[in-house]
Amino acid sequence: MILINYINEEIKQIKERFHDRVKHPYITKFLEAPILDEDRLFLLYSMLEEKKLPKTSLNEYIITTLLVQAALDTHETVSISNVSSDKVKKERQLSVLAGDYYSSLYYFLLAKINDISMIRLLANSIQEINESKMSFYKDTQRNISHSISHIKIIESSLIQKIAEHFKLPKWKAVASEFFFFKRLIAERECLLQGKTVPLIESIVNENNSKLRGEARLKSSIEMCDKYIFLSKSQLQSLCQQPSPLSSFIMVRMDQMLTEADLLKEKVAEEG
Length: 271
Hints:
- By secondary structure, this protein is an all-alpha fold.
- The chain has 12 helices and no strands.
- The chain starts with a helix and ends with a helix.
- The mean pLDDT is 87.
- Pfam families: HEPPP_synt_1.
């Protein structure tokens, strides 16, 4: 219990430092603060804690990685469609500015401690993510395996690169699959809200490209559910050995499945 409380306190302090870092009086006047993915934070903390890094280094690596993710997420929200409203134009310009600001902060923090290798690692990851985004969104005739590969890079390249750097192959595999699983859950929710979801679209197009309307939506949800449970099985296989990481992954999977009402559906199917 003491250890759990210690970890929770450490993570709380990192969250506070992150939010302090991203505060900018002009940006926050017009835009909401970036959303911090707590799963990403917990995995980064647990992974680097396993290497017994000094607390200062551990904190800096986590904060800088989260800043890069905030920059990528913020730039992802920028629409390229034509707009006539001055307010929308200003918000779009500020979103670009905010993303650039968060990105400059990661460089500043690592340069301050002269960690050139980590600067290079994160820069390479940013390049890899942006290249995967371009390939994924430009390819209208998406191949399923290529789409999945691109999504895994987009969702977890930062953590994968850090795992490689610190020679933690299991963490790399778990992060890749876990954030893919999480993306699938998010796309399923978007489907139910009537939104277009590129990953599931690529899967449906390869299997039932002629479907339209309700039949297409039904097929999309079925395909999404299929890949969600395939991903769950893969994660269960990766998390067979008892560890805090395995426990966290299993609990979070069940939480996300429950929130999506997928556990009840699966039980009903098997019953």
